[in-house]
Amino acid sequence: MEDLVISKVRVRIIKLFLTNPGAQIHVREIARRVGSEINAVRRELKRLHRIGFFKKSPRGNRLFYSVKEDFIFFDELLGMVAKETGLGRALLEKKGELGKINFALLAKPFVRGRVSKPSEIDLLIVGKVSTALLTKLIENEQQRLGHEVNYTVLTSEEFDFRKRRKDLFIIDVLSQPRIVLLGNEEKYCKL
Question: Which among 54, 59, 58, 50 is positioned nearest to 14, based on CA atoms?
């Protein structure tokens, strides 16, 4: 994102808010958490508010910011941040070592902070992967989050077979809001 967005401070602010769903943070706390001087943070907050990314709410002598989820580029930014942080980043950094991944998706509710029920899937991978490395990446993410990550790995043949048979599990996974990490969304998600 830093290659696409000129301001590194702006990128850090966007990441801070999109990796902390529902956060309402005041200016000084934002500056502290992104590790930048307060004037630079104020300048970027003003720009992000002007384009509709933030809503402001004064409380006492503090001004709190929170993300407007109806912001026109919210989903795109969320997808970019999901690929640059947490499990998305780990998978993309290790994709060569993991094996042959034809398709991978993260459930958008998981990216937004959902703690999944046993029946909900956070990560779907289609391909042939190193289970030892994948397990290590998942365990690291679970430790970071403090809760379990539900995931499924299917070979291409298993996925195609279950999709052709209109398997309820596959339909549920592909029907939920998602962020595609790898692969062709049209090819894999079309029901």
Answer: 54
